[in-house]
Inverse folding.
């Protein structure tokens, strides 16, 4: 499993050690662990977002060419990515906001194309309150029709072509609240 930059990096801290999950980082780690405790950081061990991480027993490091060969070769079962927009048909925009500062697409394009499954972990709206779950992305696409599921603070949603399908709502959240915060039809 690969964890994208931003919210997805928090997943490593919540995986039970007995789970048989190996985290891969595109900069060349297989067996990436959670964030280190304060004082235990090693500035030489970082994830793709340049945050210090740990390596679990049995983990390894290698060059980015090998890492991208793993990704492009279809050896990543799941990538959890952040997003600026996700369309109901599974289109993903996660690298550039028109008129904003562009950092470059990075490895997201390779992960979107090479991973067997794409899950997006993001806030439901922007800081300005604009929906991130939309009918059609108007930000530059990273990849088309690749996202299967989106998890936000409001719930869990599947991309279902012309709408989002609710899998589960967060405690205390109503379907009407979700519909008001989403820029596409939502099926309950």
């Amino acid at each position: 499993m690969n964890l994208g930059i931003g919210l997805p990096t928090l997943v490593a801290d919540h995986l039970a050690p007995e789970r048989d999950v190996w985290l891969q980082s595109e900069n060349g780690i297989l067996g990436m662990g959670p964030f280190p405790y304060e004082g235990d950081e090693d500035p030489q061990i970082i994830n793709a977002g340049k945050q210090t991480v740990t390596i679990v027993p049995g983990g390894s490091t290698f060059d980015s060419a090998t890492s991208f060969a793993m990704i492009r070769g279809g050896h990543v079962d799941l990538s959890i990515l952040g997003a600026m927009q996700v369309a109901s048909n599974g289109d993903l925009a996660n690298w550039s906001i028109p008129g904003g500062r562009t950092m470059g697409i990075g490895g997201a394009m390779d992960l979107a194309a090479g991973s067997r499954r794409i899950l997006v972990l993001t806030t439901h709206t922007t800081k300005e309150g604009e929906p991130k779950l939309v009918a059609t992305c108007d930000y530059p696409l990273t990849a088309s029709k690749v996202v299967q599921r989106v998890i936000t603070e409001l719930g869990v949603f599947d991309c279902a072509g012309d709408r989002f399908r609710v899998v589960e709502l967060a405690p205390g959240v109503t379907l009407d609240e979700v519909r008001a915060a989403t820029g596409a039809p939502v099926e309950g």
